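As the work plan foresaw, our protein records have gained a structure token line. A representative record is set out beneath this paragraph:
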Amino acid sequence: MISVHYAAIFGGVFAMASAVSPGYQAMIKLSTPPPITGSAQYLEPVTPGQVVKVAWSIKKDTSCPGYLARAWAGDGGFILTEPLRVATLPVGTADYNVQTVIPEFAQSGALEMSIVGFYQCEGQHRQPFKLGPVDFTVTEKEAE
């Protein structure tokens, strides 16, 4: 039979472990480097619906499967997140020209795009990431 003394010690250890665990998980997530890093810039004005090639420099450090989406925010309260799709870049460091369609309903003015997503190795927590933002200046389409 367990004595009251050992039950109290076990209860205290269990309570302490329960309290520390969420903090430990947060520390692991904050101290783990992102699975992918990168940056890009686009200097020319754009128009809604225009297809542009954005030059990205990317370093990917994981071979785990992942998903990503473009997230847009701009003047006039414009917000758009495109559907998630499978991330297909190989592990390593490289430069990519990524064909990007400026959203049709983007307002004139400032617009930024980020690539957001996650990688998840089997049996591990998701590793979220964010690339960018890339800043654009949207101008109105000229009358045809």
Summary: The first strand starts at residue 36 and ends at 41. The two ends are 89 Å apart (CA to CA). Helices lie at 4-31.
